[in-house]
Specification:
Distance between the termini: 69 Å
Radius of gyration: 30 Å
Strand content: under 5%
Largest sheet: 2 strands, antiparallel
Strand order of the largest sheet: 1-2
Number of helices: 17
Order of helices and strands: EHHHEHHHHHHHHHHHHHH
Helix content: 55-70%
């Protein structure tokens, strides 16, 4: 027989019977009409038409075209499964993630602000794909959409544009699709921004929130978020800096680049070495500031210390125009 079994199509409804009955044909008559349209004898009889209608056997593309001519509708209208099988799935999530990563890498070299439009388009596409993805694969696609939203938020921050709505959008997607580590990282990045803006109290609060166990932050994320906290403590001249620094040191020792999330792709090799050095330099600053060691209130006759470079500074060494937090 000029037909083949398509296991993916089994038990999936089609509209063959509906259109056959619309024309008032029996299954045998439908088989005869298909042969007439083909202009030759076909290996399709009433039983074959029955199997097609019940989804037990899927006809070849040639016979699908004959059915389409017979019933006067498109193949897609006869076999909705053909459209369903084209819906976004796990492979879509992989391709989408690759596009998101291309934008991440491009942000290291492209002029500030030039990628905002592209990232907005990619995020819109990602959200649309999430909405139309198969139920079993929707979470995978949705999590990539959350990463795309976070990347778009950062590009807006980098360009000096209003980013509050984009941040809320990224946070909502991360929560909706269970990408909890991304929630922690968003809080950590905001801590760095708050510190760079001189809001030290907010920087400490956000850094601590980012380390909550419920987010499941990676060691790399914990390391640089806590380094932000330590630097904020140094600038504030309080006694909490050594404790935060110890947390950052331990976290940096645990960092394995292979286990870090894709949005921390830069935390490896020389960059990771430089970030660890930043923490070491910050420790040396603490060792040389009597105000912090003795608890003497800042501003009593000694100059407030300037913090050592933060964990994001190493990225700035590769990209001098970068405005990454810290």
């Amino acid at each position: 027989m000029d037909e083949h079994t398509d296991r993916d199509a089994l038990a999936v409804s089609n509209r063959l019977r509906e259109h056959r009955l619309r024309l008032g044909l029996t299954q045998e008559q439908a088989a005869a009409e298909l042969a007439r349209l083909a202009g030759r004898e076909l290996s399709i009889d009433g039983n074959a038409v029955s199997r097609h209608e019940r989804g037990k056997v899927r006809p070849t593309a040639y016979h699908q075209a004959l059915y389409s001519r017979l019933y006067g509708v498109s193949v897609e209208q006869l076999w909705p499964v053909a459209v369903d099988r084209a819906r976004p799935d796990a492979s879509t999530a992989g391709h989408l993630a690759a596009l998101v990563h291309v934008l991440r890498i491009a942000d290291d070299t492209e002029p500030t602000g030039t990628l905002v439009a592209a990232s907005e388009d990619l995020l819109t596409l990602a959200e649309r794909l999430t909405d139309t993805a198969r139920l079993a694969d929707r979470q995978d696609v949705g999590r990539v959409a959350a990463e795309a939203a976070m990347n778009h938020w950062w590009l807006l921050v980098d360009a000096g544009r209003d980013s509050s709505a984009a941040h809320d959008r990224a946070m909502a997607l991360a929560v909706e699709w269970g990408l909890t580590p991304l929630v922690g990282h968003l809080l950590g990045w905001r801590a760095g921004l708050a510190m760079s803006q001189g809001d030290l109290r907010t920087a400490v609060r956000l850094a601590r929130r980012s380390r909550l166990p419920q987010w499941g932050m990676s060691p790399g994320g914990v390391a640089w978020a806590t380094a932000y906290e330590a630097r904020a403590h140094v600038l504030a001249g309080d006694l909490e800096a050594p404790r935060a620094l110890d947390i950052a040191r331990v976290a940096y020792e645990r960092v394995d680049p292979a286990d870090e999330p894709p949005w921390l792709y830069w935390m490896s090799g020389h960059v990771l070495t430089l970030d660890r050095l930043d923490v070491q330099l910050l420790a040396e600053v603490l060792d040389t500031v009597p105000a912090i060691e003795s608890g003497t209130p800042p501003g009593t006759g000694r100059t407030s210390p300037q913090p050592a470079p933060g964990p994001a500074t190493s990225r700035r060494r590769r990209r001098t125009r970068s405005k990454r937090p810290g």
